[in-house]
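PT: before anyone asks, these are the final sequences, not the draft ones from last week. 1401 residues across everything. Please model them as a single complex and drop the result in this thread when it's through.
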Amino acid sequence: GSLSLSSFLPSLPPSSFLISPVSPPGAGDQALFTSLYTPLAQQLPREPMEWRRSYGRAPKMIHLEANFVQFKEELLPKEGNKALLTFPFLHIYWTDCCDTEVYKASVRDNMMRWQGKLRLHGSADWVIVVVETSDAKKKNKTNILPRSSLVDKIHQIKICVVLSDPLQDSSRSQESWSAFLLKLRTLLLMSFTQNLGRFEDDMRTLREKRNQPGWSFCDYFMVQEELAFVFEMLQQFEEALLQYDELDALFTQYVLNFGAGDGVNWLGSFCSPVKSWTGLLLRRPIDMEKRDGIQRGQASLLELRSYLFCRQCTLLIFLQRPWEVTQRALELLHNCVQELCLLEVSMLEGALDCWVFLSCLEVLHRIEGCCDQAQLEANVSHTVGLWAYATDKLKSLGYMCGLVSEKGPLSLELNRTVDLLAGLGDEKAETVHSLQSPYKKLKEALSSVEAFERHYLELSHAAVEMYRAIGRMRSAQLIGKSLAEFYMRKGDPELAESFLQNALRSYVSEGWSLPVTHTRKQMAECQKLLGKTENYLQTSALLAGDANLTDEERIHFCQEILTFANQSTDSKGKQPKVALSMSSFAQLKQLQFRPATATVHSGTALQVELCLLSLMPVAVPLEQLAASVHLNLEQGGTNGKTRGPQSRPYPGTVLFPLANSSGMPPSAACPSLELEEIQDRSPLDPHTLNSTGMVCKNTHLVMRRHDSSPSPDTPNLVSPVPVVMDDGAKVLMSGDVTLLPGNNSIVFSSQELGTYTLRQLCATVGQVQFVLPHISPLVQYEVYSQEPQLTVEPLTDQLLAGLPQRAKVRLQTGHYTVKKGDALQLTNIDSMPVLTSSSCPATILNSTAEHVGESVLFIQSSEKVTCISLPPTPPYHTLEFQLEVLCVIPSDPVWPENQRLTNGEIRHRNIFCHCLCHCLCPQMSIDCPWSIYSTPISLTFYIPFKAKHSLLSAGNRKYIQVCLQNVSDVNFHLMDQRLTEKHQESSLELQSLNTKAQQLVCSKQSVYCVWDVRWKENMPLCLQCVFSASFSSASEEVSSFKPYHYEFQLERVTTLYSVRAEIMPAAGEQNCHSGSLCGLEMSITRLAEPEDNEDDGETEEVCSTKLMYEVADSSNSWVVYGRSSGLVSMPADANANHRVQVELMPLFAGHLPFPDIKVFKYLPPSANSTSQPDTDGCVENDTLSLLDRPLDDQGDTASIRSRGSVHSVGSGEQQSRGLPMPRLEPFNPGQVFNHSQGCQVLVLPSTDDHVLEINAT
Amino acid sequence: MAVCIAVIAKENYPLYIRSVPVQNELKFHYTVHTSLDVVEEKISAVGKAMADQRELYLGLLYPTEDYKVYPHMIRILYYTCLHVFYQIENILLYRHTRYGYVTNSKVKFVIVVDSSNTSLRDNEIRSVSQLLNLYGSLKGFQGI
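LR: through. Structure below.
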């Protein structure tokens, strides 16, 4: 079996070793090998061998396969042979000679000759195979050459293998085969390893010489590729790929070095002009054509690269790494472009584009060929780069060849196309029959405008779709943009628009200003062609204000707007105006109110100064600038109270957040929250909160979705949002304004009544209106109208009654103008006279509380009215002056008949309002010139004193004490305290016991005054007294004393009874002892004869008065034994006396106060007495319960035995049962005089007291 | 050397972008912007591993014929970031504060290198300091 070498390489089955078998000249041996060839070739690769490698490389299991070639001397490698593929690794000599004679006759010589040749060529890898067959043995039984002897005979022979009965199916034969195969494999591998090692060493040596002159990359390429082929044969694709990668890197490095000025000779061949740009060809495993070129040193750079990549691609696909192919392909293509540039290879313009385009498609076709659709779809990210690159290249070819224009290619361009197509050569045989080969595509695309468009669009759309599919939106947009450019070139702006919009939206949203500007410029062109006037103007406005453009460009776009604005007015009269967003045109930066409160009253002008930053490059004349305002109905009006702008750091100034013109991130454009606290207060009590909360005032801005609709405020609009104008709204106008580039100040003024919110701003330039649809934050101002207001307020914290006090009168004129002669008329009231002086100073303040002027008021007082003539005061001014008033303290309250005078509380009279805290609220009314109604004015005066009186008795003598408490915060001087009878009728004499004529009564202190009451005749039943004193404020330098009166009434002052008590120790004792009984003797004496009307009915009946006494101990030191209360009947005679004995026991030792003795009038039950409603007289004394109250002898007091029942004595329930109840009525103070009040008695401790009681409190 | 350097905020807007041939500025803007596609892809691919790292080199991406684009994710503290910028260029600080949207993380550096420039190896742009050296070279070249 010999094989021709020439056809070897391309058809080389992977992994086969070349073994040169040696067959003897005799036909018999040739026949022997032929008979063994088939099983040998089959069985050799069947079992793997471990391949141990040098340099510590990992061992691998490989299958050996071999080519058997007949021995020829010329096949033996000569000195310096670099071929590894055709290297005969093992020489085998086959013989079946078993006859000694034959051996001696021919075989030996033959063998020796063979060995001689091998030796001559330095080949030591050989083996002699002796095939033993039983047939042969049988034939020549006589001259059997014993195996040992044959082996002996060829003693120099290193290796000899015996194969027994190879063609027979016996166990011996099989054993023999396997032993033989093992031996063969081992020998083969040994030889291979040895020779490979030698080859690698040689290769390395060669590589080391690479910097020597005369070294050729192409030669070296062939050597290393030989190694790669060998690895490929062994199916060691990784190793094979490595060889190519090393070659790749080596070449790349040389090119880079060349670029850096370090050129080598052999690179010269790669620098020659490129004449063919057929692109990569990946359909053949080995492109022999290109390989030959490399071998001959005639390959161009592109050919070398193509061949190298083709091999790499083949190996990568063997390795099932198709995605690495695409990645490497892209790198290769980029790299080739650079390398051609570095090596300064001259190439027809566009040729490289052709090459790249063809190569991209070829790679994609190759990959599509080895992957299924699902795999392809899952790995779009790996292929899309090639698609995009191909698209890009086709596009530039199209532009270059004049295929992207409305008119078609020029002749120059046609020539170029022809040249480019020439470089493609003929289509390769592999793809001739394929309909969609890259070659055909390119050729077709360059053939006509229509075909180009079709192919270009197909590719572009495919790339866009792929990018979208994997989420690379930006890349998709970029391709979309070049599509748009294509459409624009083709005069097809409709199709371009959406692509531009997409791209622009993306750049705007991510804040890339330069791309925004560029794309917007394209957009403007597109919109202009489309005749979308409004959009075009809006875009022009944006561009005119775009700082990225040159002044010329900006002015151009600005001029576009102005031209349109003026044209339209000329030609088309009544066309509706075009409304554009103002933000691209000018920015509202600041707004300032004058006055700063943003609140004026009607009649004055409120000025609003706007600061507008014009973004236009030139001055723009505005026909008018209008700010539309909205009347706030719901807020009513604050009537001049400040709010809104004033709470900001700069009063009256509203700063607007700068809306960015371009390049601002969208997040930054998000408006800040405007929060306001709301409180719901209770209508009754302003200090009580019902609820509170926060409201966001600009929810519509904050909550707006950012992704969907572009915000109307930002100028970064892809297409302008229709601007809605407020129709019919009130506007503030400013006409004929010229906006200069930069900051401009425009002043509006407003006079109309109401609270207004600024809504929109609209600048009109001819037919164009620039509208700022929302002014945010909210800006409000108010023009208000106010009714005149008159208030009277105390000048001090409290107004004190009885003293002259100052009150401030404030007249807020509002819309009313106070004319000369206008006067206020106060209706005089007696209790509060106005202390008139003829004139008093007045102050006039303007609306911002600035002092404007002084004036003098004239006050005229008549009996009924006080007339205050006002100075002329302009509207919305405040006139202030002070009035001195005196509130008279009422001294003579008229009490109802039956009301007892228990304290000094002043009761109200009809002119005073009812006040609890000693205050007086006199109401006065003022007639004002602006109104037909009187204005009621109420002032609150506090009475500085609180008076109390009491009656003191000493036997028959009477004293009246008056306590005067200063309840105010002021200290007073008090003098001239007098007590007089109101009606000087009786012969009463009140003698003052007070020594001081004048006294200081500090705040919260009291003064007591006592009078001795003497009388000559009978004491009147009722004493009506008037306490009067003069007081003046202690702080006043000149004290003018004002009177104070206090009236009171005392009834039944005369002492009727005197009670005298005595405590006597038990009989035989000197002193009382605690715990032992002692006696209380009380004596009640009538001092005066009963008056006629003293007790109704009783005196007439029996001329005696029934009294009830009661011994009550409030100090818990006594225990009453026996009766504690009882009835006595006092005869009507004066000096009638009644004695009562009560037994007591002291509980403690010491000086014990006497128990209290109370005496009541006892009114026996009577039918007509039930009508008496006065139940106040009923006994109600808590201390009674401590004393047991045994039933009275007469049983009359049965109903008052217990405390609880006492009160129910007069209740209707019991009366309705017809059980008349007795009543007790206390005496008036002073009617009963107790002599022993305050007496003490000495109580000694009981003698047998073993317990010492200590009370510690 | 580097022909364009961009610092890109978390929200993908350029905090800073400078390129050396000024006439090609627009092209670089487009290139850098488009490269964000791949940056985002890589960031999401790296996923949580990133959380531990202060900086992350994403490798060469988005090569074109003419330029290589190297993205760089840097997770550094805000002030460090500021400081570094302050050294580079004052105007950057101004812009920086004006936008004020830089967070601690996800600031991206994208550096575009001229493909024909062969003295720069891929692995030479791995760390911030090396990056800043590039900044330095850019600065010197452009005379910022």
